[in-house]
Amino acid sequence: LGTHAMLPLLLLLLATAHGLVQIDYTPALASSELGGLVTTSTFTLKQPRCIFREHETAIIWLVVAIPEAVSSFNNSVEPGTPERAFQEFPNSTSAYMTLNTTFLNYPCPESTGDITVLRVGSETNCIKDEMRPTCNGPLPSPGPYRVKFLAFEGSEPVAETNWSEDITLGTAQSPSSISATGSGHSAGMITLTTILSILFAILLAALLAMLIFWSSDACGSSGTFSKSESVSVRRYNTHHVYDQPAARL
After folding, report:
1. Which residues cross the membrane (predicted)?
2. Cα–Cα dist 88/98, whole Å
3. Quick check: 124 and 141 in contact, CB under 8 A?
4. Are 23 and 151 in contact (CB under 8 A)?
5. Cis peptide bond prior to 142, omega within 30° of 0
6. 20 to 30 Å CA-CA from 82: which of 66, 169, 202, 238?
Protein backbone atom coordinates (compact mmCIF):
# COMPACT_ATOMS: atom_id res chain seq x y z
CA LEU A 1 0.00 0.00 0.00
CA GLY A 2 1.13 3.57 -0.69
CA THR A 3 1.90 6.13 1.97
CA HIS A 4 -1.33 8.00 1.28
CA ALA A 5 -3.40 4.82 1.73
CA MET A 6 -1.56 3.81 4.89
CA LEU A 7 -2.19 7.08 6.76
CA PRO A 8 -5.91 6.52 7.54
CA LEU A 9 -5.09 2.96 8.66
CA LEU A 10 -2.39 4.22 11.02
CA LEU A 11 -4.76 6.79 12.48
CA LEU A 12 -7.38 4.07 12.99
CA LEU A 13 -4.84 1.88 14.79
CA LEU A 14 -3.81 4.84 16.95
CA ALA A 15 -7.44 5.52 17.84
CA THR A 16 -7.92 1.88 18.77
CA ALA A 17 -4.83 2.01 20.98
CA HIS A 18 -6.32 4.97 22.82
CA GLY A 19 -9.58 3.07 23.31
CA LEU A 20 -11.54 5.40 21.04
CA VAL A 21 -15.11 4.19 20.49
CA GLN A 22 -16.53 4.62 17.00
CA ILE A 23 -20.20 5.59 17.25
CA ASP A 24 -22.37 4.80 14.25
CA TYR A 25 -23.88 8.23 13.89
CA THR A 26 -23.50 10.74 11.06
CA PRO A 27 -24.12 14.44 11.84
CA ALA A 28 -26.69 16.04 9.56
CA LEU A 29 -28.36 19.37 8.99
CA ALA A 30 -31.52 20.08 10.94
CA SER A 31 -34.98 19.97 9.42
CA SER A 32 -35.53 22.51 6.63
CA GLU A 33 -38.81 23.50 8.30
CA LEU A 34 -36.85 25.59 10.81
CA GLY A 35 -35.76 28.19 8.26
CA GLY A 36 -32.29 29.69 8.04
CA LEU A 37 -30.83 26.20 7.81
CA VAL A 38 -27.81 27.44 5.86
CA THR A 39 -26.71 31.06 5.52
CA THR A 40 -23.58 32.69 4.13
CA SER A 41 -21.69 32.11 7.41
CA THR A 42 -23.70 29.63 9.54
CA PHE A 43 -25.42 26.26 9.39
CA THR A 44 -27.73 24.39 11.74
CA LEU A 45 -27.15 20.79 12.85
CA LYS A 46 -29.33 18.28 14.63
CA GLN A 47 -28.22 17.69 18.21
CA PRO A 48 -26.67 14.23 18.79
CA ARG A 49 -29.41 13.14 21.19
CA CYS A 50 -28.84 9.78 22.97
CA ILE A 51 -25.62 9.23 21.04
CA PHE A 52 -23.10 9.57 23.91
CA ARG A 53 -25.15 7.91 26.66
CA GLU A 54 -22.21 5.60 27.43
CA HIS A 55 -19.98 8.64 28.08
CA GLU A 56 -21.99 10.79 30.47
CA THR A 57 -18.93 12.41 32.07
CA ALA A 58 -17.12 13.19 28.82
CA ILE A 59 -16.87 16.62 27.19
CA ILE A 60 -18.39 16.47 23.74
CA TRP A 61 -16.90 18.72 21.05
CA LEU A 62 -17.94 19.59 17.54
CA VAL A 63 -15.10 19.35 15.02
CA VAL A 64 -15.37 21.56 11.91
CA ALA A 65 -12.91 20.78 9.13
CA ILE A 66 -12.30 21.32 5.47
CA PRO A 67 -12.87 18.08 3.50
CA GLU A 68 -9.17 17.67 2.72
CA ALA A 69 -8.38 17.38 6.43
CA VAL A 70 -10.71 14.44 7.15
CA SER A 71 -8.42 11.62 6.10
CA SER A 72 -5.48 12.87 8.18
CA PHE A 73 -7.33 14.29 11.18
CA ASN A 74 -5.58 13.56 14.48
CA ASN A 75 -8.09 12.95 17.30
CA SER A 76 -5.39 13.20 19.95
CA VAL A 77 -4.79 16.94 19.46
CA GLU A 78 -6.61 18.63 22.31
CA PRO A 79 -9.20 21.38 21.81
CA GLY A 80 -8.09 24.91 22.61
CA THR A 81 -4.59 24.42 21.23
CA PRO A 82 -3.28 26.57 18.33
CA GLU A 83 -3.69 23.58 16.02
CA ARG A 84 -7.42 23.53 16.80
CA ALA A 85 -8.06 27.30 17.18
CA PHE A 86 -10.91 28.95 15.32
CA GLN A 87 -8.82 32.08 14.72
CA GLU A 88 -6.28 30.04 12.71
CA PHE A 89 -8.89 28.34 10.51
CA PRO A 90 -8.51 27.58 7.65
CA ASN A 91 -5.16 29.31 6.97
CA SER A 92 -2.89 27.75 9.61
CA THR A 93 -5.10 24.89 10.68
CA SER A 94 -7.49 22.74 8.69
CA ALA A 95 -9.91 22.06 11.57
CA TYR A 96 -11.14 23.65 14.79
CA MET A 97 -13.20 22.45 17.77
CA THR A 98 -16.12 24.27 19.36
CA LEU A 99 -19.50 23.95 21.15
CA ASN A 100 -18.20 21.84 24.02
CA THR A 101 -20.84 20.39 26.32
CA THR A 102 -21.79 17.19 28.15
CA PHE A 103 -24.34 14.46 27.64
CA LEU A 104 -26.67 16.29 30.05
CA ASN A 105 -27.35 18.81 27.27
CA TYR A 106 -28.09 16.03 24.79
CA PRO A 107 -30.63 14.10 26.90
CA CYS A 108 -32.48 11.03 25.79
CA PRO A 109 -35.27 11.03 24.91
CA GLU A 110 -35.96 14.63 23.90
CA SER A 111 -38.91 16.40 25.49
CA THR A 112 -41.61 18.30 23.68
CA GLY A 113 -40.58 21.91 23.19
CA ASP A 114 -36.85 21.24 23.56
CA ILE A 115 -34.45 23.08 21.28
CA THR A 116 -32.74 20.21 19.52
CA VAL A 117 -30.44 22.03 17.10
CA LEU A 118 -26.95 23.51 17.11
CA ARG A 119 -26.25 26.76 15.30
CA VAL A 120 -22.68 26.63 14.02
CA GLY A 121 -21.07 30.03 13.41
CA SER A 122 -23.34 32.17 15.59
CA GLU A 123 -20.75 33.98 17.76
CA THR A 124 -19.33 37.27 16.48
CA ASN A 125 -17.66 38.72 19.57
CA CYS A 126 -14.72 36.30 19.64
CA ILE A 127 -13.68 36.15 16.00
CA LYS A 128 -10.25 37.68 16.69
CA ASP A 129 -10.02 36.91 20.39
CA GLU A 130 -7.09 34.51 20.70
CA MET A 131 -8.08 33.90 24.32
CA ARG A 132 -11.17 32.12 22.92
CA PRO A 133 -9.71 29.47 20.57
CA THR A 134 -12.93 27.46 20.80
CA CYS A 135 -15.02 30.37 19.50
CA ASN A 136 -18.12 29.37 17.57
CA GLY A 137 -17.46 32.10 15.05
CA PRO A 138 -18.92 32.68 11.57
CA LEU A 139 -17.56 30.43 8.86
CA PRO A 140 -15.04 32.30 6.69
CA SER A 141 -16.22 31.08 3.28
CA PRO A 142 -18.98 29.03 1.58
CA GLY A 143 -16.91 25.89 2.15
CA PRO A 144 -17.63 23.05 1.82
CA TYR A 145 -17.12 21.81 5.40
CA ARG A 146 -17.42 18.49 7.17
CA VAL A 147 -18.15 17.95 10.85
CA LYS A 148 -18.13 15.24 13.51
CA PHE A 149 -18.60 14.97 17.27
CA LEU A 150 -15.63 13.98 19.39
CA ALA A 151 -15.76 13.21 23.14
CA PHE A 152 -12.84 13.72 25.55
CA GLU A 153 -12.26 12.36 29.04
CA GLY A 154 -9.67 14.76 30.34
CA SER A 155 -7.05 14.93 27.61
CA GLU A 156 -7.94 11.58 26.05
CA PRO A 157 -10.39 11.13 23.15
CA VAL A 158 -12.85 8.38 24.06
CA ALA A 159 -15.59 8.41 21.40
CA GLU A 160 -16.30 9.88 17.99
CA THR A 161 -19.04 9.87 15.36
CA ASN A 162 -18.74 9.55 11.61
CA TRP A 163 -17.91 12.59 9.52
CA SER A 164 -20.84 14.36 7.92
CA GLU A 165 -21.34 14.81 4.23
CA ASP A 166 -20.06 18.06 2.70
CA ILE A 167 -21.91 21.13 3.95
CA THR A 168 -21.84 24.11 1.59
CA LEU A 169 -23.01 27.53 2.72
CA GLY A 170 -24.90 30.14 0.75
CA THR A 171 -23.15 32.75 -1.36
CA ALA A 172 -24.02 36.44 -1.14
CA GLN A 173 -25.31 37.76 -4.45
CA SER A 174 -23.72 40.99 -5.68
CA PRO A 175 -26.17 43.81 -6.58
CA SER A 176 -24.89 43.89 -10.17
CA SER A 177 -25.85 40.26 -10.67
CA ILE A 178 -29.46 40.72 -9.61
CA SER A 179 -31.75 40.55 -12.62
CA ALA A 180 -33.53 43.80 -13.42
CA THR A 181 -36.56 41.89 -14.64
CA GLY A 182 -37.47 40.57 -11.18
CA SER A 183 -40.17 37.98 -10.60
CA GLY A 184 -39.90 36.71 -14.18
CA HIS A 185 -41.23 39.91 -15.82
CA SER A 186 -39.54 41.14 -19.02
CA ALA A 187 -37.83 44.52 -19.29
CA GLY A 188 -40.42 45.58 -21.88
CA MET A 189 -43.26 44.80 -19.48
CA ILE A 190 -41.61 46.84 -16.72
CA THR A 191 -41.11 49.80 -19.10
CA LEU A 192 -44.74 49.67 -20.24
CA THR A 193 -45.95 49.51 -16.65
CA THR A 194 -43.82 52.54 -15.76
CA ILE A 195 -45.18 54.59 -18.70
CA LEU A 196 -48.78 53.68 -17.86
CA SER A 197 -48.20 54.68 -14.25
CA ILE A 198 -46.86 58.09 -15.31
CA LEU A 199 -49.79 58.67 -17.70
CA PHE A 200 -52.26 57.71 -15.01
CA ALA A 201 -50.64 60.19 -12.62
CA ILE A 202 -50.85 62.97 -15.26
CA LEU A 203 -54.51 62.17 -15.96
CA LEU A 204 -55.32 62.21 -12.27
CA ALA A 205 -53.61 65.59 -11.85
CA ALA A 206 -55.56 67.01 -14.84
CA LEU A 207 -58.87 65.83 -13.42
CA LEU A 208 -58.04 67.35 -10.07
CA ALA A 209 -57.16 70.69 -11.73
CA MET A 210 -60.46 70.70 -13.64
CA LEU A 211 -62.41 70.04 -10.47
CA ILE A 212 -60.66 72.92 -8.73
CA PHE A 213 -61.36 75.24 -11.71
CA TRP A 214 -65.05 74.32 -11.88
CA SER A 215 -65.42 74.81 -8.16
CA SER A 216 -63.85 78.27 -8.20
CA ASP A 217 -65.91 79.33 -11.26
CA ALA A 218 -69.15 78.31 -9.60
CA CYS A 219 -68.26 80.21 -6.46
CA GLY A 220 -67.43 83.36 -8.47
CA SER A 221 -70.73 83.33 -10.37
CA SER A 222 -72.80 82.99 -7.23
CA GLY A 223 -70.97 85.96 -5.73
CA THR A 224 -71.90 88.46 -8.56
CA PHE A 225 -75.46 87.36 -8.96
CA SER A 226 -77.98 89.28 -6.89
CA LYS A 227 -81.64 88.73 -6.89
CA SER A 228 -83.60 91.81 -8.00
CA GLU A 229 -85.54 93.29 -5.21
CA SER A 230 -89.27 93.51 -5.68
CA VAL A 231 -90.30 97.14 -5.73
CA SER A 232 -93.79 98.01 -4.77
CA VAL A 233 -95.13 101.46 -5.56
CA ARG A 234 -98.09 102.65 -3.57
CA ARG A 235 -100.41 104.71 -5.59
CA TYR A 236 -101.82 107.80 -3.93
CA ASN A 237 -104.97 109.43 -5.25
CA THR A 238 -104.76 113.21 -5.13
CA HIS A 239 -107.95 114.76 -3.86
CA HIS A 240 -108.74 118.18 -5.14
CA VAL A 241 -109.35 120.63 -2.47
CA TYR A 242 -112.15 122.96 -3.28
CA ASP A 243 -112.47 126.34 -1.77
CA GLN A 244 -115.27 126.26 0.64
CA PRO A 245 -117.81 128.88 -0.27
CA ALA A 246 -118.19 131.65 2.13
CA ALA A 247 -120.69 130.96 4.63
CA ARG A 248 -123.91 132.19 3.60
CA LEU A 249 -125.38 134.71 5.70
Report:
1. 189-214
2. 13
3. no
4. no
5. no
6. 169
Domain boundaries, the chain: 19-170
Q: What is the pLDDT of residues 105-150, one digit of tens each?
A: 998 877 777 778 999 999 999 999 999 999 999 999 999 999 999 9
Amino acid, single-letter form, for residue 63: V
Give the C-alpha separation, 136 to 147, whole Å.
Answer: 13
Q: Which of 152, 10, 27 is nearest to 73 (CA)?
A: 10
pTM confidence score? 0.65
Nearest to 79 by CA among 55, 58, 96, 64: 96
Give the whole-angstrom CA distance, residue 42 versus residue 120.
Answer: 5
Structure letter (DSSP) for residue 52? T
Closest CA to 90 of 29, 164, 149, 141: 141
Residue 67's CB is within 10 A of a number of other CB atoms, namely 15
The whole-angstrom separation of Cα 96 and Cα 137 is 11
Q: Which CATH class is domain 19-170?
A: mainly beta
Q: Is the bond leading into 90 cis (omega within 30 degrees of zero)?
A: yes
| Maximum CA extent, the chain | 184
